[in-house]
């Protein structure tokens, strides 16, 4: 990183921003909490690196932030962008200051995740945000707990906002073969370089929802192969038409004549919503506007039933945690191990194995 980006407390950025604290550093640059001496307000300043690649990314993000200005940041649950300025050879974007990432918030809470009563408002806010973002033709394409911020951790219910539009794209301009996102939250069609649309973001949100319930990642992976392997093991392989259209399908699959595994799901409203977000077929995956009408968000506590709902959600978290253990080798608590499989709300019965191989096709892939 260049010397001009060695930002510490007291550093002056541009004409009127004084660094009060460094909130984070990454490959892109630095995020700092700054005092705006001109407005006497506190702002979060994202200082991008000065390399040409980072400059290009910064200008692209600014173009999307300008598009998002037609939306109300508070009602649409997206970060408020105040503008940008230059610091030496770097672009600095200024935002409202938010409390902490959803990832940090969840890590502080720890296992076994959040109760349904806390997940519901968070999920509703994120679906609302995506519905508004998608309504103007913008795709986020990198939704994950790191890119969701808690506005104020002391408030209940928790308020959240989506941040970081550095990898965003326009629905009308996305190109097949472009790779965006993070493997653990990436929809299978992106890994396979098949056509994708706004339902890509809904897949990411479905993975986040499961993570909130479990207290750990659903599909932990550093590379696409590991993420796709976990998906296939727990949900079966993507539909044939997606495999046929995926330019990178030969990197992951060999043609086999085995029948598709049967997946049986027994679920309550919340699990049904997650399932609809994690649909392997992007054409069948729920869209944000549709998700807002889901019964999960209209649930109201009826005397004598609230406890049952929490109990059912606990069983769901235990069973999905076991799925994650089977695919990723993570430990399960004694309570998870003690759940009766016959009473679980998410039961995956894969009756015929589908193996994912790191080799090319032995024959042309086609619809069986």
TrEMBL record:
Keywords: ATP-binding, Kinase, Nucleotide-binding, Serine/threonine-protein kinase, Transferase. Gene3D superfamilies: Phosphorylase Kinase, domain 1 (3.30.200.20), Transferase(Phosphotransferase) domain 1 (1.10.510.10). Residues 17-297 form the Protein kinase domain. InterPro entries: Kinase-like_dom_sf (IPR011009), Prot_kinase_dom (IPR000719), Ser/Thr_kinase_AS (IPR008271), Ser_Thr_dual-spec_kinase (IPR050494). The keyword Chloroplast does not apply. One of its GO terms (molecular function) is protein serine/threonine kinase activity. Pfam families: Pkinase. The keyword Zinc does not apply. GO terms for cellular component: cytoplasm; nucleus. PANTHER family: DUAL SPECIFICITY PROTEIN KINASE, HOMEODOMAIN-INTERACTING PROTEIN KINASE 4. This is Protein kinase domain-containing protein. It comes from Stegastes partitus (bicolor damselfish).
């Amino acid at each position: 990183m260049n010397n001009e980006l060695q930002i510490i407390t007291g550093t002056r950025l541009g004409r009127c921003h004084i660094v009060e604290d460094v909130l984070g550093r990454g490959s892109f640059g630095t995020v700092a909490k700054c005092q705006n001496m001109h407005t006497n307000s506190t702002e979060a300043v994202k200082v991008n690196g000065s390399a040409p690649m980072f400059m290009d990314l910064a200008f692209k993000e600014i173009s999307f932030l300008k598009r998002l200005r037609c939306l109300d940041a508070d009602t649409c649950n997206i970060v408020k962008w105040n503008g940008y300025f230059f610091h030496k050879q770097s672009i600095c974007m200024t935002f409202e200051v938010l409390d902490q990432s959803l990832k940090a918030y969840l890590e502080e809470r720890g296992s076994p995740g959040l109760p349904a009563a806390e997940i519901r408002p968070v999920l509703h806010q994120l679906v609302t945000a995506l519905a508004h973002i998608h309504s103007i033709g913008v795709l986020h394409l990198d939704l994950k707990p790191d890119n969701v911020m808690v506005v104020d951790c002391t408030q209940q219910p928790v308020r959240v906002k989506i941040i970081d539009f550095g990898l965003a794209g326009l629905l009308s301009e996305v190109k097949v073969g472009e790779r965006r996102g993070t493997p653990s939250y990436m929809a299978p069609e992106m890994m396979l370089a098949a056509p994708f649309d706004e339902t890509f973001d809904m897949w990411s949100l479905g993975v986040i929802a499961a993570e909130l319930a479990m207290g750990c990642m659903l599909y932990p992976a550093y590379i696409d192969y590991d993420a796709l392997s976990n998906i296939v093991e727990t949900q079966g392989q993507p539909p044939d038409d997606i495999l046929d259209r995926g330019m990178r399908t030969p990197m992951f699959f060999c043609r086999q004549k085995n029948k598709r595994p049967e997946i049986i799901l027994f679920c309550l409203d919340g699990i049904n919503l997650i399932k609809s977000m994690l649909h392997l077929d992007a054409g069948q995956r729920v869209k944000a506007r549709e998700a807002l009408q889901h019964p999960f968000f209209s649930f109201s506590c009826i005397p004598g039933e609230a406890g049952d709902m929490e109990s059912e959600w606990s069983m769901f978290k235990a069973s999905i945690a076991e799925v994650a253990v089977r695919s990723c080798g993570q430990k399960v608590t004694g309570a998870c191990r003690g759940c009766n499989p016959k009473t679980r709300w998410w039961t995956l019965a894969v009756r015929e194995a589908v193996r994912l191989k790191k080799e090319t096709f032995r024959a042309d892939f086609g619809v069986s």
